Amino acid sequence: MAIRSRNKRKIDFNSSSMSDLVFLLLIFFMLTSTLVAPNAIKLLLPSSNSKTMSKQTITIYVDDKNKYYLEERPISENKLQSEIHAALAGQIEGTVVIRSDKSVAVQHIVNIIDAVNEINKDTDNKHKVLLATSNKK
Fold first, then answer.
1. 3-state DSSP call for residue 59?
2. Is 21 part of a structural domain of the chain?
3. Among 64, 67, 127, 131, which residue's Cβ finds the most Cβ atoms within 10 Å?
4. Position 28 in a domain
5. Is this structure's pTM higher than 0.85?
6. Range of the structural domain that residue 113 is part of
7. Each residue of 37-65: pLDDT tens digit?
């Protein structure tokens, strides 16, 4: 007479918890990758020891080919003042941050400063201009 056990062991593998874990990891990496947003315009900033921090209103980039970008959107040199004025509309004390490649001639930075000074003179505002730098090593 054969004795049969009442409790049979199942050899099935339940993969539902594994798929939940994979989806949670996928969501985690998707969220963390969107939080890290590097600058789209690659620049070698000049180095400095100063640690001046300010709330920036707009950012103007000047790349190594002397092209201007307002918030990563290319603009021409002759429309620089009008584009900055439109971006600073409604601001009384805005801050314009210049992120310039260290190989750019000083004249291109002065063009931006002159444009902001003209806007300040025309509208009686007090916009500031800051030059972004990297830390000295």
1. strand
2. no
3. 127
4. no
5. no
6. 47-135
7. 555 566 666 666 666 666 667 888 998 88
